[in-house]
Amino acid sequence: MFTPTPFGGTKTTDEFGSQRTANPGILATKALVLWQMQKYQDGLDAANRAVAANSSYAYAWNIRGLLNKQLGSKNEALADFDKAARADPKWGRPLANKAEVLLALGRADEAATAYQQAQALDPAIKAPQSSRQTYNVIGINDGDTLNVRSNPGSQSPLAATLDGRATGIVITGESFRVGSDVWVPIRVGNVSGWVNRKYLSPDR
Predict the structure, then answer these.
(1) Which residue did the predictor score with more confidence, 19 or 134?
(2) What is the C-alpha separation between 87 and 58, in angstroms, rounded?
(3) What does the DSSP assignment read for 86-122?
(4) Is there a contact between 27 and 15 (Cβ–Cβ < 8 Å)?
(5) Do residues 152 and 186 make contact, with C-beta atoms less than 8 angstroms apart?
(6) Neighbours of 121 (CB within 10 A)
């Protein structure tokens, strides 16, 4: 089917379809919907096309960062949030999203800075509970230590140990289930890694 154009000549409906699919706003919205549906790879494909169509589109870079975060590509997510922040220096949300990834990577000091920057732009942004709440080790016999693993699971390599009475532990990111156990990424002092959540109690 052919349709007259405002500049003379004709366009096919396929050509109009191509124009719509190249619209960065439509592509970014599609990526967001796919993210909400947990179809992360399909969403990333749409976000890639959105930023290719408009490399200064902060909203699209931010969504791409969320998708990369869910896909485990945390360094790519950090780069995406940085690009979103540069594209719209008055928008705090990409900086808050960046801070969450930094926490998950155990980079608590950098995360705190990113949250401060985000909150300066948007006071409604709140740091997650995990960045404020500290925990104590529990359930460890006297003289024993708590193993800190390099990855979730008791079969992962040992990264460090914590004293059975350690305090001031910060959960730096999202939990991960291995079998019936829930593992969390932590940081305390110079020690970071994963521990079994059952051995942590909030410090009230």
Answers:
(1) 134
(2) 5
(3) HH-TT--HHHHHHHHHHHHTT-HHHHHHHHHHHHHH-
(4) no
(5) no
(6) 17
Over residues 126-185, the pLDDT tens digits come to 766 555 578 999 999 989 999 999 989 999 999 999 999 999 898 877 788 888 999 988
pTM: 0.58
**Alpha helices by DSSP H, the chain:** 13-21, 24-36, 40-53, 58-70, 74-87, 93-104, 108-121
Structure token pair of residue 188: 């305390």
Local structure of residue 143 (DSSP, 8 states): T
**Contact predicate 149/131, CB 8 Å:** no
Q: Rounded to whole angstroms, how far apart are CA atoms 183 and 143?
A: 23
Place of tokens 């009475």: 165
Domains in the chain: ranges and CATH: 2-126 (1.25.40.10), 134-202 (2.30.30.40)
Q: What are phi and psi of 112, to 5 degrees?
A: -60, -40
Q: How far apart are CA 119 and CA 21, in angstroms?
A: 35
pLDDT score recorded for residue 4: 34
Q: Report the greatest alpha carbon distance in the chain.
A: 85
Contacts of residue 98, defined as CB under 8 A and 6 or more positions apart, other chains included, come to: 65, 77, 78, 81, 82, 85, 114
